[in-house]
Amino acid sequence: MMLEKLLDIKKTMGDKKQIGDLLYSTLREGIAHGIVPPGYRLKEEDLADLFQVSRTPVREAVKRLEYEGFITSDAQRGSIVRQFELDECLDTLEVLEWLRALAIDLLEGRIPRSILMQLEANIKKGCLLTDPKEQFENNLEFHALLIRATGNTELIRITGRLEFRERTIANNILLYSYDANYARAHRDLLTAIIENDKEYISNYKINNKDKVNKYMNMLISHSLYDKNSH
């Protein structure tokens, strides 16, 4: 049963959250990772049975996800996992690319030692990965660490929400593809940030913007193909 995979996610959430928050986080991750795909109808009774809770926390979790735009509800169809529109996907990726470039500018060589160690571990891991989904998560973590290194709480909050949408797009619509040496490029960028090598950073941002634009064009083509095939 598809929903049973949510129990594996639930185990990773720990046991310190209130039941409503736990269900919300579990469903949210399930949607982001494609375990509960777009178009799937969420039934309160099935979720309540799965998690062995009353329908009240299930209903609260679904309402929160509806407020965030991941679920739509109506009297006839119930609660349906929502498919992002193409414009939403493109806007998300465009703004996220801007914010990541801003984070690099804000750092200017100032990276806390604890985060620097996490970045090094991320790069070492990335050099060994071959699975596209694992590479995607590794790349996402690398940029999230750079953003966290800025210490700007608003930048961290905003990009966190957009990163979740990016994960949802990649797992439900079209997965990114990565060059074999993408992690080594991360190491070169990290070195350039530490040394405040503005020329390298400028070239990196131009190259990265080109990659994002290429992926966005692939999303457009994918969307047009889906529409023509139905």
TrEMBL record:
Keywords attached to this entry? DNA-binding, Transcription, Transcription regulation
Question: Does the keyword Transcription regulation feature in the UniProt annotation?
Answer: yes
Q: Does the keyword Cell membrane apply?
A: no
Q: Which SUPFAM superfamilies match?
A: GntR ligand-binding domain-like, Winged helix' DNA-binding domain
Organism superkingdom: Bacteria
Q: Which residues form the HTH gntR-type domain?
A: 17-84
Q: Which PANTHER family match?
A: TRANSCRIPTIONAL REGULATOR, GNTR FAMILY, UXU OPERON TRANSCRIPTIONAL REGULATOR
Q: What is this protein called?
A: GntR family transcriptional regulator
Which species is this record about? Brotonthovivens ammoniilytica
